[in-house]
Design a protein that fits this description.
The protein has 271 residues and is α+β, with helices and mostly antiparallel strands. The protein folds into 2 domains: 154 residues, no CATH class; 75 residues, 2-Layer Sandwich (Herpes Virus-1), CATH 3.30.40.10. The strands form 5 sheets. The chain has a 5-stranded mixed sheet, sandwiched between helices. The C terminus is likely disordered. Its EC number is 3.1.-.-.
Length: 271
Amino acid sequence: MAPQGELVEDFYGVYLLYSVNPKYQGHTYIGYTVDPNRRIKQHNRGTQAGGAYLTSKRGPWEMVLIIHGFPNDISGLRFEWAWQHPQKSRRLRGINGKKRNEKRFDFCLRVLATMLQTRPWSRLPLTIRWLKQEYKKDFPPGMEAPLHMPIAYGPVKAQKVLSSKNGEKSERNSEKGSCICMICEEEVQPEDIMRCLQNTCSMTAHVICLAGHMLKDDPPGTIIPLEGSCPTCSSNLLWGDLVRLKRGCYREIDGEDEEHWTEALSQESDS
């Protein structure tokens, strides 16, 4: 895959490989990566270059599809495992196994379509990206992806979060000092702050306050919002994007403990 492509910060993706080796034509492989361009090279160079054992000597491989936008590596790895093992996932127990005349590639897409309609994945700000458009297929009728998940085309390049010259985070991401929540009008500390994604908007709010604002039109009992409007500029915001771009909000302790306000979202995933 060429290194050029759309730049995406904080990249966590789960991809689908397709073998173009005549001997293994149609074989597929599902994996997780933070750098798709590097990962496809590893697969095609074999285990000695970091590729997976199951893809070694069965290539060349094409990375044809990647799902990205996961808030962290744990979320992406859980999605990868469920996609690889749909009949072992408690979220996908009702899915039918591979049909007798069904191609492996089509089965992978059918499982993916089901996953994107299943919580917690259905509420994440995921992007469905066809890296190789010639392999593109529509999801089965009635199993289309949620409307908030865009379908993109072409290569993608992972990019680290931009930093200033002195190695600190950019001024926009810097959260030194407290400020005032624009919803409850009380002081909000740096570790509990949320900001609008629009560069021209100065909205700041408590995590809980903003979640409550975005949940006002959701059914009673909903804990984590999917999307909502900014209380200052009224732009539409995806909660998953706010979480993913807030540095440190998915802190891991021994791989299990997370910040209290994101715990419900992560616990809905398969372990």
